[in-house]
Amino acid sequence: MSDGALAASGITRGFSGAKVLHAVDLSVPKGGVLAILGPSGSGKTTLLHILGGLLRPDAGHVELPFERPAFVFQDPLLLPWRTARGNVAFGLAGRRLSRAERLARARSMLVKVGLGHSEAGLYPHQLSGGMKKRVALARALVIEPDLLLLDEAFSALDVGLSREMQQLVRLDAQERGVTVVLVTHDLSEAVRLADEAVVLSGRPGRIVTRLSIDRPSRLRDDAFVEEEIRRIAGQEAIRDAFRPTLSG
Ligand SMILES: Nc1ncnc2c1ncn2[C@@H]1O[C@H](COP(=O)(O)OP(=O)(O)OP(=O)(O)O)[C@@H](O)[C@H]1O
């Protein structure tokens, strides 16, 4: 593919002789949102790292036609010696921007993730887990990525905040045509945000089903999301992947 799509074919990967991913094929059109779902240990994070070029597959190929990929890792990985504002501005370090401009952009992105002036000056050890996650998201968005890779980016947030952050990503993706790949355990997050989802089997992870969520994401209200989850949850592959969540 040469139309700006992210494309992966035959992705296989193991660690110390144990196969974690087997022959995964997927593609995401430019500006599309793909969710990766699957049970714990099915290789979702490994696949995300391969799609972002952080890890090489043992076999297979990834086409990665992007200039500014940004990751939000499961662990926020903030620099402990920098404030929230400093951590976000750090993402802009390579740009030809004055320090004042970098800090101004960082401040404004922190406001978008709901962190005001006083929080912007706090150090990571002074931030709650949810606040750190928001700083990590701001650090990714501030560089105006053309590929955004999210690994459980909203998982430590309460429901309201998680929805707000999802909305922020959705708007950013729509306005700038960002391609987004997100790993999640939360089916409702996938149904709200993604155009397509792939579901991995237990280890070694291979794609057992693909779902498409056809309604434009801005038109997915709570009733649609609930109905779609019911429909999807009826599928056997999804029941297997989400057994602990769905039975709760
Ligand atoms: N760097 C590594 N070295 C050795 N084993 C690894 C490494 N990275 C991942 N693994 C193993 O690969 C398997 C898949 O891990 P991965 O984190 O990709 O799964 P996951 O589906 O994202 O899991 P979870 O949902 O629990 O986060 C696990 O058994 C893990 O222990």
Task: Give a structural overview.
The protein has one domain (6-242): Rossmann fold (3-Layer(aba) Sandwich). The chain is globular. It has helices spanning 44-51, 84-90, 99-112, 117-120, 129-141, 159-176, 187-193, 222-233, 236-246; strands at residues 6-15, 18-28, 33-37, 59-63, 69-72, 147-151, 179-183, 196-200, 207-212. The longest helix is centred in the C-terminal third of the chain and has 18 residues, at 159-176. Strand 8 (196-200) and strand 9 (207-212) form a beta hairpin. With 248 residues, it is of the alpha/beta class. Adenosine-5'-triphosphate (ATP) binds at residues 15, 20, 38, 40-46.
Helix and strand run: EEEHEEHHHHEHEHEEHH
Low confidence ranges: none
Task: Provide the CATH top-level class.
Answer: Alpha Beta
- Principal-axis shape: globular
